[in-house]
What we know:
Blueprint: E1 4-12, E2 15-16, H1 26-40, E3 51-55, H2 67-74, E4 83-86, H3 92-105, E5 111-119, E6 125-127, E7 140-142, H4 152-158, H5 163-173, H6 181-201, E8 208-209, E9 211-213, E10 221-223, H7 235-239, E11 260-270, H8 271-277, E12 283-292, H9 301-313, E13 320-325, H10 330-339, H11 355-358, H12 362-380, E14 384-391, E15 395-403
Parallel strand pairs: 1-8, 3-4, 3-5, 13-14
Antiparallel strand pairs: 1-11, 1-12, 2-11, 5-11, 6-7, 9-10, 12-15, 14-15
Amino acid sequence: MKEAYIIDGIRTAIGKFRGGLSPVRTDDLAALVIKALMERNPGVNPAIIDDVILGCHNQAGEDNRNVARMALLLAGLPHTVPGETVNRLCSSGMSAVIHANRAIKAGDGDLFISGGVEHMTRGPWVMSKVSKAYGNDSAMHDSSFGWRFVNPKMKAMYGTDSMGETAENLVDDLSEQAITREDQDLFAYNSHMKATKAQKSGRLAKEIVGVEIPQRKADLVVFEQDEFIRPGTTLDKLAKLRPVFRQNGTVTAGNASGLNDGAAALLIASADAITQYGLQPKARIVASQVVGVEPRIMGIGPVEAAQRVLKKAKLTFEDMDVIELNEAFAAQSLAVIRSWGLKDDDSRINPNGGAIAIGHPLGMTGARLLQTAMIELHEKGGRYALCTLCVGVGQGYAVVIERV
């Protein structure tokens, strides 16, 4: 069976809600990383790309009607190159990469662009039509985040807890782990401090391509630093924030990921393509695994996903040199880490900070984790990395990669 390799990856800096990327259309953001990826790899003729596969969570606004296809055309790729958009909510970007991996293994292509995009700032309001003439059952929702147009059957069967409530559910259900508010705030603080250090040292810059943003009455601005990171946060500041989802809860705006904007793209190739086009692979995709879990505790998904992917790869946690765990919430992250039997401050976990600090553009994040882990393996000289996310409505996704 053929093997799939990650040749290169690039991402935008991640914007905060209504922040620096606000003026940029979602499809333009996706096009930018595709174009930048091709410019970084001039030996690859765009016409030979077998498919462009992007993950996207929203798809209700400028990311509608197959944003992958729109973006590749906007990026200047030939119209003969096809495009597909996939949606597995928070893990959409990871799913896109594994779609390419599977296609290569199946012999359905040799060279792919995969990644993800999400622009939560520009997610539109959406309104349903009435079900009958002169009806009054129309509804309107903000498409940026959370449930919309809920099926009453789904609500009766599984509930429709918000993502923050699912994190609170984990604190309650895993009471033996004693995940306190203080634990969560400390985890969030450490994420910001690690990300701050990585930003100041230039480590994060190795992942990023700048986004040129025209200004009305000034020179254009190049957006090239993750802006959600809070270098000045403290444990005291975090402790003063009120719980968001329950009156006596523990999840706050400070120990959760945010609403963010960004895009990422990776070049995925078979061994044949590497030889034919003289490419230099950076990582091999070893194994992947997706699982389903109870929706009300969706955040626990990475536990089983990671255990199963490691078993599939015939590896253990001890073999992992880097672990990129998406920080949807500090409570959720701690529940996963402790369920794995690891320490809260394991130095392999998110060494440059995670989503609580860097941000979580939903459709992009899975691709970012793989790109970040790939670069980190080369920075540290490590061999294996585990990348994993929880997924809304109860799923977990995990991928193991090996440095080449």
